[in-house]
Write a structure and sequence with these properties.
Elements lengths: L3 E2 L3 E4 L5 E4 L15 E5 L2 H17 L10 H17 L5 H19 L9 H13 L5 H17 L10 E2 L1
Antiparallel strand pairs: 1-5, 2-3, 3-4
Helix pairs in contact: 2-3
Amino acid sequence: MSRVRVPGSVYRRSNGRWTALTPRVFEGSSVVRRRLSLGAFDTESAATEALKAFHVERSSSSNLNFGRMSVADYLSDWLGLVRSQFEAGHLARRTMSGYEEAVRIHISPGLGHIRVADLNHLVVHGWLISLREAKGLSDRSVVKLYRVFHRAMADAQLPVTRLLYRSI
């Protein structure tokens, strides 16, 4: 029997019940990503199903216009969220300025014209190659820019177009 991997974790408590924890997400108006407990369950499969249901519900409740939004518009909104984290003291000044510089100089000019719904690994890979070849950036700089872009997209509540779960 294959097991299904779902973003988050499921573990057995000392009392024999199972708990499902989400990956780190923004909840409400919070400026800090937190892991949410989905409760205690009698079986591991029930906890895993609750975690799957959380991901499906969260993606379906996301903004319906999100797919029409351009990457530049999304990154502008994301920088506002990051700025609120900085102002709350959860982010260093240098990190904040690095994010703003990466978005302003490299990410928005390269990917800003694309709709978020049209993003895929080929588009991002092409952008990374253009950074290396056309702009002459070092491998380390390209990796740093990818990490900023990845962080921004990880904070998004992207609509699910295909299942994120894979069998082991």
